[in-house]
Specification:
The protein is α/β, with parallel strands linked by helices. It is built from 10 helices and 7 strands. It has a 7-stranded mixed β-sheet. The radius of gyration is 20 Å and the shape is globular.
Length: 284
């Protein structure tokens, strides 16, 4: 059998599988309408949560640390490490009173898909704390913006990819202020809800779509094709955001300690412009 024939059949099987999944989604929609219930895309892909990140083969390497620091958010005591995961170098900062080990933090970070790891770099730019873990954040699982990502111990990989939506969107909005307006138009044209939480406001819809896209990306081409059919406008816009957002290059001449540690004069404030607050994303 010729190689081109094999590839054509493989493509056909992928398309058939995606169409079958769409039929199941349509069936769920009709059933929900009969019960006067709303169908959410996140629920349709919830089965993908079980194995999320398990296929990632990159393992974190600690380059330096721990170094004692004052936490940016409240000036409490903590420690910082510089870490490399695959091709991504970033900082992990842990408040002492969390009782968390750096290994415990890294276990959830290594589950994040490679294209999303640029968020690690963005929040690790100069004078930022990187992936920061606090004992509590006023009831929220995480606070995220392009200036920081603060999390509590219960924040898992799903919270992190949700926050990636906020962080990457804000990075793109810095150069394209109409990003959220474009997202609102995509919501209107797609005519489908991602999640109950996302229905509240456009930037949360974007973050919830980032979560669903991460689930599909981790699972494979079939799931991505299915998501694209369900929400084509969001899909195209998110891929633009995901591929365009970049972190500023690190200053190579600085030592790891100088880049990572926060002296009193450097950490006297923590600007929270455009803060996005998250509870754990819903398991619809």
């Amino acid at each position: 059998m010729q190689k081109s024939t094999i590839i054509s059949r493989a493509c056909a099987m992928t398309i058939i599988a995606a169409c079958f999944s769409l039929l199941l989604y349509a069936s769920d929609m009709y059933a929900a309408k009969a019960k006067n219930e709303k169908v959410y895309v996140v629920k349709h892909f919830s089965k993908l949560r079980k194995n999320f990140g398990k296929s990632n083969t990159d393992k974190p390497e600690i380059l330096s640390g721990p170094t004692m620091v004052q936490m940016l958010n409240d000036q409490s005591s903590g420690k910082v490490w510089q870490v490399k995961l695959g091709e991504t170098t970033f900082k992990v900062t842990i408040q002492d009173k969390t009782g968390m080990s750096v290994e415990e933090c890294l276990e959830r970070l290594e589950r994040v898909p490679k294209p999303y790891r640029k968020l690690f770099e963005i929040v690790s730019e100069d004078n930022k704390a990187g992936m920061a873990f606090y004992a509590e954040l006023g009831g929220a699982a995480a606070h995220g913006s392009q200036n920081y990502l603060n999390m509590v111990p219960r924040a898992d990989a799903f919270v992190i990819v949700h926050e990636a939506g906020h962080i990457l969107e804000q990075r793109i909005t810095s150069s394209n202020p109409k990003t959220l307006e474009e997202w609102k138009k995509a919501i209107e044209k797609d005519k489908v809800s991602i999640s109950r939480y996302g229905d509240q406001v456009a930037h949360e819809d974007l973050a919830e779509f980032a979560l669903v896209y991460a689930l599909c990306l981790d699972s494979g081409k079939k799931e991505l094709a299915e998501l694209k059919k369900l929400s084509p406008r969001r899909y195209a816009l998110w891929e633009t955001i995901l591929t365009t957002a970049k972190a500023a290059p690190l200053v190579a001449e600085q030592s790891a300690e100088a880049k990572s540690s926060c002296s009193k004069q450097d950490c006297s404030s923590n600007p929270e412009v455009g803060k996005a607050e998250a509870t754990a994303p819903e398991k619809e």
